[in-house]
Amino acid sequence: MYPTREAAAGGPTAREHPTVWGAPSDGPFGAEELAAHELRGFTILEDFVSDEEVATFSDELTRLAGDETLRADERVVTEAASGEVRSIFEVQRFSAVIDALTRDPRVLGRARQLLGSDVYLHQTRVNYMPGFKGTGFYWHSDFETWHAEDGMALPRAVSCSIALTENYPFNGGLMVMPGSHRTFVPGIGATPEDNYRSSLKAQEIGVPTEEAVTGLAHTHGIDQFTGPAGSALWFDSNIMHGSGNNITPFPRSNIFLVFNSVENALDEPYGAAAPRPGYIANRDTTPLA
Amino acid sequence: MYPTREAAAGGPTAREHPTVWGAPSDGPFGAEELAAHELRGFTILEDFVSDEEVATFSDELTRLAGDETLRADERVVTEAASGEVRSIFEVQRFSAVIDALTRDPRVLGRARQLLGSDVYLHQTRVNYMPGFKGTGFYWHSDFETWHAEDGMALPRAVSCSIALTENYPFNGGLMVMPGSHRTFVPGIGATPEDNYRSSLKAQEIGVPTEEAVTGLAHTHGIDQFTGPAGSALWFDSNIMHGSGNNITPFPRSNIFLVFNSVENALDEPYGAAAPRPGYIANRDTTPLA
Known about the structure:
Chains A, B: Homodimer. Chains A, B: GO terms for molecular function: 2-oxoglutarate-dependent dioxygenase activity; iron ion binding. The first copy, chain A, has 289 residues and is of the alpha+beta class. Helices cover 24% and strands 21% of the residues of chain A. Chain A contains 7 helices and 13 strands. A 7-stranded antiparallel sheet of chain A has the order 2-11-7-13-5-4-3.
C-alpha cells in the first residue's frame, strides 16, 4: 500500500488517506484549526499545559532519569557517547502522572478528534536532550517506520510532543516540513534484524534519499517547533521531520505520546522480518478512556 | 595580559580594551550603530552587497572549489568525512574579485572605523557548508585563539562575514552571545604543536569550559546571524560564537575577512610554542588601501 524498504527505492508518492478523520463537533479543535492541521500536518499550541504542570512533569522526569534501578530496563535508552539517559519508552507504566496525562481531556479529546475514532497508545516516551551533548535525528517520517517495522496499515496516527523546556530556534528542536505529510517517501534498503536496537540511537536504515528530502524542502520549506515550556506540537504520523544537534547549554526535554486509531490496529510488518517489541509498538488496542 | 591555555584554566575576566576604537566622523557607521556595536559586539547589515555581487562571488566560489589544481594547496581545507572543500584561506590571493572586495569602501571604511586606524588582513577565507553534511563549530572566541596561537596582543580586530546563501535559523548559521565580547574566557589546556592542522577541522584544544559557556549564555542569551544572501555580519574578535550542524538541504557559503589594526601587529604567540603559518595569521601589516 505504501511500499518501502526496497533495495531500489521508489520515488515519493501521493498519500492516499486523510490527515484529519474527525469533525469540529467531535472535540476541542475548531473547524479552522482542523483545516489548518489537514493542510500543514501539524499544530502548535502554546500554554497547552500550565507552568505548574510543567514543574510536576519535569520533577517526574528528573526522578525517572535518576532511578538507577531502571538503567538495566530495555525501555531505557542511553546516549551512545555519554551513557546518559536519552529516552524512556512506555513511560506511563513508570509514572502515574504521565499515565493520567494520556487520558487528560485536553490530550485524549484532540487525539480522538484528529483520528475520528477511539484511540490507543502506539508508543510513548520521554526524551532528554542535555545541553552541549544533544545529537539530532535525521529527516524521517514516523509512519514510514511504523508501516515497515510495525505493520501499521494507514497513516491514521498522530503524535503529541509536550515541551518541558523552552524550544529555541537553536537548541536542537524539531524541524518539520509543513505539507510534507501529503507525500509518502519510501525508505532505502532492506530492514536488518533487530534494527530498532540501533535505529533508536541513530537512524541509518529506512532513511529517505537526499533527493527526496531536497524536493520536499524546496516545495514546503522548513518550520521549527519553538516556544516556551508547556507548548505542545501535534503532528501527523507521516510528516517529514528531523532535528539538528545542540551545542548550546540549554537542554530540551519533552513528553512524546503517539496515538493510533483502534481501527488501524497493527498487522504484520510490511517491511521487516519480525515485529518490534510491544514497548516500541504496542499491540494492545484497548481504547484509552 | 589575557592569560589562556594554562593547565588549570582561570575563570572569565573582564575585557580591558574598547570594542569600537574609531568615531562616527571616521566612516560609514553612524553614532547609534557604533554604540550598539560597542554594546552587543556585532552588527548585522542586510543588503550589504547586491544580488548581482552575490552571484559574482558565488560563481567565484564554485570556480575555486572545483579547481582540482588547488586541492594539494595547504590553504585548502577539506571536510574530514567527505573530502569536500570546506574552506580556502588567503582567498584574495586566488581571486581578483575577492581581493577587490577587501578594499571596497563599504568594507574597508567600516573596518578602519571600528578599529580606529589603518588595517590589514589578519586572515581571510571562504567557507562552504554543504547541505546535509555541514558540521558545526563549538563555542569559542577568535581572539582567544589569535592571542594564544598568533601573538595578537589586543582584541583590536574585527571580522566581516558576508553570506552568499540565505542563513535560516536552522541550517547551521553562526550563533553569537551578544555582549559576551566584554568577557575574556580562557581556553583550557596547553596548545600542542601544529594544533592548527586539526583545530581548523574541529576545535578541541583551547575551548572554553562548559561552565563558562553556560554562564555567558544565561547572562547574554544567544542570537543568530540570519538573513538573505548578501547580508553581512560584523563581529568583534572576542565575541563568543559557535554553530550547530546542518541536516537541511540548504547549503551555506560565505566570505570571511578578518581585519586587524596596524597598531596591533602580531607578537610571538602568548600560548603556543611556534607561530602559525602566514596564510592563517598574516604577519605582513602593510595597510590596505
